[in-house]
Amino acid sequence: QVQLVESGGELVQTGDSLRLSCATSDRTASNYAMGWFRQAPVKERELVACISWSGNSTYYVDSVKGRFTISRDNAKNTVYLQMDSLKPEDTAVYLCAGRRVSSRSAYYRETYQYHYWGQGTQVTVSS
Fold this sequence. Notes:
Layout: E1 4-7, E2 11-13, E3 18-24, E4 32-39, E5 46-51, E6 58-60, E7 68-73, E8 78-83, E9 92-100, E10 116-117, E11 121-126
Parallel strand pairs: 2-11
Antiparallel strand pairs: 1-3, 3-8, 4-5, 4-9, 5-6, 7-8, 9-10, 9-11
């Protein structure tokens, strides 16, 4: 069973930056496509960003383009989400998700496409 563990969430102020990390327990996790999702109270879980196995293909939801950057270090089995210029509307539990893939360039945008999920880390942005 693959485990995903997020870290890095905390309470920050508008305009601050945070870097979230997602560590995977599978040593072969380099052949996983990964995604960061978020879920705010009484809202549906939504994609924030996703990245291919190779790291060369990425996708961002419009609301975070230009502010967030997803990246990965396959040698460390870790995916990152650098979040800059944070806004109160970014407040949510951030979850990472993964799925084993054979394509080095594919990424996935829907929750049902992922097989493994972390427990989440809380990000709170105060105004």
